[in-house]
Inverse folding.
């Protein structure tokens, strides 16, 4: 990774565009504590912060590096301790590139209130951000909230992962990962854990539920959450169809030549379970398709070769044809 990032930075400098390019290096989660290989931890380490990858509320799962570089515009070698969020990326880049706010870019869309905050002033001039709240999700579930109350940063946990005894992780093994829902978490909605992150950043000492401080903070956080839910409608799920969640390297032009080219006809031979494609890039045959995979002319087949002279039925190309790959055959590529 270090060599790859270095190669990108070197290329920007060689092409003399490093002063006109914003580089933002970050991660979407903390270290994968459960991952091991030959007895050695390979998924990273989160220091004294508890938890890791797959955990929506634990500090070890959500504290990640955020490194900006913009030659001539941002001071080099400066460390800023202000907590930020990946949600800040869009408003920050819009302001840094002198683009108007998102509502001005897309006036045909309803006006919307972004969760993110622009970091432009913080990064270029050191202008401090106003105290802010952050909501930590694990998928669609809200696992934790943080809020500045009377100058101190508090965090309230509404869910807690069921870690292995004596640890802050869920077992061992590269395929192990703490679950965000169901039996993998303990619901704390009605009995939340609260931490004073200003004085207890590693979340070692939950504030007693018998204290006035606890109920004061819980009340403020619950009020904030209710106000947030009232103004932020949940969008329709983009992951109901499993095919939408899968990487599809077989759809790339360099994997299958006829993708991106003009298709003149599709032929199907039900007896041999084959589908043939004729395009401006040549002719190909997909073999060994199951009968139901012909429905809707969805090409999911595993192997290609130049077609022979076999008799096949010619089917006109359909404009709404969907190209996909049977997930059960992913390991056959």
């Amino acid at each position: 990774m270090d060599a790859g990032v270095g190669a990108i930075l070197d290329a920007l400098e060689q092409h003399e565009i490093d002063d006109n390019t914003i580089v933002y290096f970050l991660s979407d989660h903390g270290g994968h504590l459960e991952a091991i290989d030959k007895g050695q931890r390979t998924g990273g380490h989160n220091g004294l912060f508890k938890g890791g990858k797959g955990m929506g509320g634990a500090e070890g799962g959500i504290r990640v590096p955020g490194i900006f570089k913009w030659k001539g515009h941002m001071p080099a070698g400066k460390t800023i301790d202000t907590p930020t969020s990946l949600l800040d990326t869009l408003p920050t880049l819009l302001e840094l590139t002198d683009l108007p706010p998102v509502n001005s870019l897309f006036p045909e869309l309803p006006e919307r209130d972004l969760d993110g905050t622009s970091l432009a002033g913080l990064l270029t001039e050191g202008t401090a951000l106003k105290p802010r709240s952050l909501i930590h999700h694990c998928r669609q579930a809200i696992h934790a909230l943080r809020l500045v109350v009377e100058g101190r940063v508090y965090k309230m946990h509404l869910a807690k992962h069921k870690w292995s005894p004596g640890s802050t992780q869920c077992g061992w093994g590269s395929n192990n990962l703490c679950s965000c829902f169901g039996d993998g978490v303990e619901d704390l909605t009605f009995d939340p854990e609260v931490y004073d992150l200003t004085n207890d950043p590693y979340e070692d000492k939950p504030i007693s539920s018998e204290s006035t401080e606890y109920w004061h903070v819980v009340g403020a956080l619950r009020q904030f959450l209710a106000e947030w839910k009232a103004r932020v409608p949940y969008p329709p799920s983009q992951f109901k169809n499993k095919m939408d969640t899968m990487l599809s390297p077989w759809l790339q032009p360099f994997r299958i030549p006829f993708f991106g080219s003009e298709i003149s006809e599709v032929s199907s031979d039900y007896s041999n379970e084959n589908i043939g494609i004729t395009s401006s890039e040549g002719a190909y045959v997909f073999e060994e398709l199951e009968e139901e995979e012909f429905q809707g002319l969805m090409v999911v087949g595993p192997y290609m070769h130049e077609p022979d002279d076999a008799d096949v039925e010619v089917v006109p190309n359909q404009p709404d044809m969907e190209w996909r790959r049977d997930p059960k055959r992913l390991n056959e590529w």
About this structure: Residues 212-231 form the longest helix (20 residues). Residues 249-263, 288-333 have pLDDT under 50 and may be disordered. The domain at 2-104+116-231 is CATH 3.40.720.10 (Alkaline Phosphatase, subunit A).
